[in-house]
Design goal:
alpha+beta; FAD/NAD(P)-binding domain; Alpha-Beta Plaits; 3 domains; seven-stranded mixed beta sheet; six-stranded mixed beta sheet; 10 helices; globular
Length: 370
């Protein structure tokens, strides 16, 4: 039997796409080796990134104005939400879909060959299996503890905190502290390597987190629930048959892909293009931003993020969330470049020299020149 849609991968992106296809009356088959597995990761988003159709019970906690630290504090004037992974998964209901516990091994536009030998056919086949790890790909890594919020008195939610109180040498690769409420009286405190090739390993991040918490007088026993994170921030393949991180939806500067996938799922379910020309151009610009981050000396990162969070809120929003906002992304990046300290500006320019934007969209020279 030929389905309307086959979705390979039942993580947040694949499940969201399958769910929206079902809502629109399409016949759907979902393929995943362990389709009933729980999602152990913590997912978060800016509230204005989320689609209207998302069940509000999927939001576990909201931070109205999170703080970001470079060398000084910045208030981000934009609500930030932490999603409840279990409720998010449940809200992306797959009732009515055929769910196949198997591994997709070869995909075409209309077929999915499975490890069991079965071949599925459909009018559209999507690869939402994420990105396979590779030494050639930059990764984000993190090590976190879930603490009783009462042990974190006085510690405010932190989008990122680059202060150097984690015991790392000044010239070592940098990591930052990420702190968010999870609801139910708990908080996640996570030491994060934003992007590295190679990225910092788990034991290094664990030791840094423990040092940082002790330096701030935050009590922990070592018996707390641990969250470990490791995933590529590059390597997606934008196209008509890929979706989620596999389809290039991951932001290389943050690693976030869930909100972008949720927002795009409804349109893709209707057959709309996920990658119009402006989105492809933004994808290339963001890849250039990742090259710049990877090239910066460790001591430059806090200053770089001071400059970024000094940008107007609209520019921050465009770069962090404007997947199809080419003009806004160009304005944000060019403004950031102009306001960086000169030595840092030269290093960023060297890292991104020669970038080309393959797009039919014409970028006004006034924007590029500032």
């Amino acid at each position: 039997m030929t389905a309307d849609v086959v979705v390979c991968g039942a993580g947040p992106a694949g499940r969201a796409l399958a769910h929206r296809c079902l809502v629109r009356g399409l016949s759907v088959t979902v393929v995943d080796p362990v389709p009933d597995r729980r999602w152990s990761a913590t997912y978060a988003a800016w509230v204005d990134e989320l689609p209207e159709w998302l069940d509000p019970t999927a939001i576990a906690a909201t931070v109205e104005r999170p703080t970001a630290w470079g060398t000084r504090a910045h208030r981000v004037d934009r609500p930030y939400v932490v999603l409840d992974s279990d409720r998010l998964r449940e809200s992306l209901d797959l009732a009515g879909a055929e769910v196949v516990a198997d591994r997709a091994v070869e995909l075409t536009a209309n077929t999915a060959a499975l490890a069991s030998g079965r071949t599925l056919t459909a009018r559209r086949v999507f690869d939402a299996r994420g990105i396979a790890r590779s030494v050639a790909l930059a990764e984000q890594t993190a090590y976190g503890l879930v603490l009783d919020a009462r042990h974190c008195a006085g510690l405010e939610p932190l989008f990122m905190d680059w202060r150097a109180d984690n015991g790392a040498p000044a010239d070592a690769p940098r990591s930052f502290l990420y702190v968010v409420p999870l609801g139910g009286g708990t908080m996640l405190l996570e030491e994060t390597c934003l992007a590295g090739r190679p990225a910092l390993d788990g034991p290094t991040l664990r030791d840094r987190l423990h040092h940082r918490l002790r330096s701030r007088g935050i009590e922990f026993t070592g018996d707390e629930r641990v969250e470990r994170v490791r995933f590529p921030v590059e390597g997606g393949r934008p196209g008509r048959r890929t979706f989620g991180a596999a389809g290039g939806f991951a932001h290389p500067a943050t690693g976030y892909s869930v909100a972008a996938s949720l927002m795009a799922a409804d349109a893709v379910a209707t057959g709309a293009r996920a990658w119009p020309a402006p989105a492809r151009a933004v994808y290339q610009l963001r890849a250039a931003g990742l090259r710049a981050l990877l090239a910066l000396p460790p001591t430059d990162l806090p200053v770089f993020f001071d400059t970024f969070f000094d940008l107007p809120p609209a520019a921050q929003r465009a770069y962090l969330s404007g997947r199809t906002d080419l003009t806004g992304t160009v304005i944000a990046m060019s403004t950031l470049f102009r306001t960086l300290p000169p030595p840092l500006r030269r290093r960023v320019a060297a890292a991104t020299l020669g970038i080309g934007i393959r797009s039919r969209i014409r970028i006004p020279s006034a924007i590029m020149e500032g």
